[in-house]
Design brief:
Helix content is 9%, strand content 28%. By secondary structure, it is mostly beta strands. The strands form two sheets. It has a five-stranded antiparallel β-sheet with strand order 7-3-2-1-8, with helices on one face. A three-stranded antiparallel β-sheet has the order 4-5-6. The two termini are 25 Å apart.
């Protein structure tokens, strides 16, 4: 899933719109017990969120992948409406991508030492 928009609601809940138009809500409250999310107990820190498309990230460094959000969100029915002012649209070039997990030692190389894909 790619996150197109997020809207912050009360009680650490986010409304999420996926790029394919699905909408749902994600409750961050269960995550606040973990050290990585402690700062988000402060509502002002919770509001400092940015949308990276494949993840959401807060200024304190906490983040959640779109896959985690999709696995735990409650889907809403109906059409998407762009009227919410607390909208966070997907950021442009700062999207995380899948990286080749093979180490440099195990990658195949050609005669000039360049990686083969």
């Amino acid at each position: 899933m790619i996150i197109a928009e997020i809207h912050l609601e009360s009680n650490r809940v986010m409304s999420v719109v996926s790029e394919d138009g699905r909408m749902g809500t994600f409750d961050l409250s269960p995550y606040l017990k973990y050290e990585a999310f402690e700062a988000l107990r402060d509502i002002n820190e919770f509001r400092k969120v940015s949308n990276g498309g494949y993840f959401v990230e807060w200024a304190c460094g906490a983040d959640l992948s779109a896959d985690t959000i999709e696995a735990k969100w409650l889907l809403k029915t109906g059409k998407h409406n762009n009227s919410n002012k607390s909208l966070q649209k997907k950021s442009k070039p700062n999207q995380r991508t899948c990286l080749d997990k093979r180490s440099k030692e195990t990658r195949q190389r050609d005669d000039r030492g360049k990686d083969l894909v």
